[in-house]
Design goal:
There is one protein chain. The chain has a six-stranded mixed sheet with strand order 18-17-16-19-20-21, sandwiched between helices. It is globular, with a radius of gyration of 27 Å. α10 packs parallel to α11 (487-506). The protein is an alpha+beta fold and 671 residues long. It contains 18 helices and 26 strands. The longest helix has 24 residues, at 539-562. The chain has four domains: 27-106, Roll (SH3 type barrels); 110-222 and 511-529, no CATH class; 249-505, Rossmann fold; 539-598 and 607-669, no CATH class.
């Protein structure tokens, strides 16, 4: 695993240091040392003093970040008419003054991101908390009816090119098309939040500031009551832009177990590709549209004659005829593995991160396996990942994953482990169920049928053009009545991928320059999540989190050997020893130990790490302790993958050093 550490890395979120004049930034509150920051709105200006007579810098970039050294109070603060004395860093160097109306306070590094839009309604943004709170608390049927009226009014205004009345409670809305945060970077910082019960589920109402900086030339609010152009663009759907699908490309990559038992299935996969090749070769419209690749995996290279752990047979993705020739080189090993589990996670990890994906192509990975992966923490798990972190990394890379699980009858216990892993891996964004096939390994023809349906579905989708976005497939049974995914499910997964692709290609513009109240659940169907929490971290901060988790991991492993208390083991860790040992020794939980960064302790979402105590650790058996530590290890490994993935890093401010680029890290990767 690559080291994340570059130079000196501090364990905790950076605490404001004394500058030359002894000044430190204002903190977010009396119980936190985390400095208060503000972000600028478009077309803001930096002034020499509070008279506003001298402009030091005009037309500041959207969401330029500053630390606050003087904050207005009382009515000036509440009305937004006060002035903020700010600095570009927390070292005491003052940059100037900003008007309150030109900024918004950002008390946490939390922000929100839209979930995949397929299968849910766009997020409604309310001007007043009470309007949203009252709606969220309505009975499910009444709430759906009320929400639908808002959507209908927005669509009607967009269709007529008009604005909504000033008293309309919804001031903005998420676009119907998927917004690609990597191409149209947006920021939805959380300014306030509270929990609410929605149909028996815990939901959250959040006050956010919607900011988007890419290409903004002026402060142009996306308030639906004054901006008819935004209403029109937000109401455009993927189907309205389906014409762009003529340029759609699909990259289809197999990840195949090539241990000794897999010979018949490798041969069947090759037969499937041979049949597909006839379809593609006979249609000139497919030229350049679909490219294929294959990764093979086995087990630890320490096993005699195993030859490799993973191997990429397609350093560049290939057209189908060339790929058929390549598949002839994919052979099973003649060497038996030492145990049942194999290094499947390494094969999937390499396919996600090391495939030469073509720019702008939809990415599909199909895994063929007959055994589980070594769990995280096992000496032969070379990737260090587990199914959950790999699923997040696949989502961040816009990869849709299918799993064909060949189940030998003699390994029933291991089949259950593999099913858990593969079902989690194949639960793709924008779909309702895992793309997971359970196949009796005694019958290769069943595998051939499933593989044929998958590849035929990909080919049909690529050739369907705008018709691929059809809402349903006639004659297919309902998904809940099937034991395995069918053609409709394959189509719907590809449709979800296409919806994301169209949004990215069209440059769907997110709401901007509004403050509003939103709900993290779909107001028409509370079972669907509409917003997800992310932490905006730079590389230095991501590295510091990795340091903390490594110390927790080291303490846990040491405790399992020594038998002393968990906190005593943690106290002995090198990076912790320089902190306050008494605070740790007397802390009831890790949250109260002084070791947890403020950005974690301020989260309104549950963290298992912060609940850790000596009693909780001691109450767990060895298996539960191992599970906790293995999950921690997988998260640390995932940070390395994020660190090295240029697709996830964005410059908040023009001229930012690369070390200050930020990534919106999914909550699932936090401990």
């Amino acid at each position: 695993m690559k080291k994340l550490l570059f130079g000196i890395i501090f364990l905790l979120w950076p605490v404001a240091a004394l500058g030359e004049d002894g000044r430190i930034p204002v903190s977010i509150g009396e119980h936190s040392a985390l400095p208060l920051r503000v972000l600028t709105r478009p077309m803001s200006a930096l002034y020499k003093d509070t008279t506003g007579a001298v402009v030091l810098e005009s037309n500041l970039p959207a969401f330029q970040s500053y630390f606050v050294y003087t904050r207005p109070e009382g009515e000036a603060l509440e009305s937004g008419t006060g002035w903020y004395e700010v600095g570009a860093d927390d070292k005491g160097k003052i940059a100037g003054w900003l008007k309150g109306e030109d900024i918004f306070e950002w008390r946490q590094t939390m922000c929100l991101a839209y979930t995949h839009p397929e299968g849910r309604k766009p997020v409604l943004m309310f001007e007043e908390e009470s309007s949203l709170d009252n709606l969220a608390r309505e009975e499910a049927g009444a709430r759906k009816t009320s929400a639908e009226k808002f959507y209908q009014a927005i669509d009607a205004a967009a269709a007529g090119g008009t604005t909504l009345p000033p008293a309309f409670p919804v001031i903005s809305v998420e676009p119907k098309m998927a917004v690609d945060i990597a191409r149209q970077f947006y920021l939805l910082p959380i300014l306030a939040h509270k929990s609410v019960d929605i149909d028996g589920r815990e939901g959250r109402i959040l006050r956010i500031a919607a900011v988007s900086g890419n290409g903004e030339k002026a402060r142009e609010s996306s308030d639906l009551r004054s901006n008819a152009d935004f209403a029109k663009s937000a109401s455009a759907s993927s189907a309205d832009n389906a014409g762009s699908m003529r340029d759609l490309k699909i990259d289809f990559v197999w990840v195949i177990d090539t241990t000794r038992s897999m010979g018949p299935f490798i041969a069947k996969a090759t037969e499937v590709m041979r049949a597909v090749s006839k379809n593609i070769a006979g249609n000139p419209e497919f030229s350049g549209k679909i490219a294929f690749g294959v990764w093979a995996y086995r087990d630890s290279a320490s096993i005699a004659d195993i030859e490799y752990q993973t191997r990429n047979f397609t350093p560049e993705l290939q057209p189908v005829e060339e790929f058929l020739s390549t598949m002839n080189n994919v052979q099973e090993t003649k060497t038996d593995s030492v145990d049942v589990a194999e290094d499947m996670f390494a094969g999937i990890s390499d396919a996600i991160q090391k495939t030469a994906w073509r720019p702008g192509a939809i990415r599909i990975v199909a895994v063929v396996a007959d055994a589980p992966a070594h769990e995280a923490g096992h000496k032969w798990n070379s990737s260090g990942q587990d199914e959950n972190t790999l699923r997040v990394l696949a989502t961040e890379s816009k990869i849709y994953l299918l799993a064909l699980h060949l189940q030998p009858s003699k390994t029933a216990r291991y089949n259950k482990i593999a099913e858990r892993q593969l079902a989690a891996l194949s639960l793709n964004q924008g779909t309702g169920a895992p793309m997971y096939w359970k196949i009796n390994s005694a019958d290769p023809s069943v595998f051939e049928k499933a593989a044929g349906e998958i590849t035929a579905g990909v080919v049909a989708f690529a050739g369907a053009g705008s018709g691929a976005l059809a809402e349903s497939r006639e004659g297919a049974p309902a998904a809940e009545n099937k034991s395995a995914p069918g053609p409709e499910d394959i189509h719907n997964m590809l449709k979800a991928a296409a919806v994301q692709w169209i949004g990215s290609q069209s440059g769907a513009v997110p709401p901007r320059d509004v403050e509003a109240w939103v709900c993290d659940k779909d107001l028409t169907d509370a079972a669907r999540q509409s917003l997800e929490v992310r932490l905006l971290l730079n590389k230095r901060q991501l590295d510091s989190l990795a340091v903390l988790l490594r110390e927790v991991l080291q303490a846990g492993r040491s405790n399992q050997i020594s038998g002393e208390s968990f906190f005593n083991s943690l106290q002995a860790a090198s990076a912790v020893a320089s902190r306050n040992p008494d605070l740790l020794a007397n802390a009831p939980t890790l949250e109260k130990s002084g070791l947890i960064p403020d950005f974690l302790s301020e989260l309104p979402y549950h963290s298992r790490l912060m609940d850790m105590s000596n009693d909780l650790w001691a109450s767990w058996g060895p298996d539960e302790q191992d599970g906790f530590l293995n999950a921690i290890e997988a998260k640390v490994t995932s940070y390395s993958s994020l660190h090295d993935n240029p697709e996830v890093w964005v410059a908040l401010n023009k001229g930012d050093d690369a070390a200050e680029y930020v990534a919106p890290v999914p909550l699932e990767l936090l401990p």
